[in-house]
Amino acid sequence: MGFLEGPYSEDEMSVLLGTEKWSLNPRYVLFQGTAGKIRIIDDAKRSGVNDSYSSTIKLQLQDIDYVGAMLTEAARVAFESGL
Q: Residue ranges of the domains in the chain?
């Protein structure tokens, strides 16, 4: 219909944008709900954009193996000290 152009190579995109500082975000369509409302989704995870906005310090929860080992160690220390 004349409103789309391309496909372009990476070099051609850099020329069109006037810079080499750009990233590719794949785009896909999501049909939401029973009415099928169209949502356009940009996949910023693939290009690494999401990584630049994330926290580098994250809470690490302990699993059941860690809890079991801690309880076993506490019981051993309590037994050896006569508690």
A: 25-81
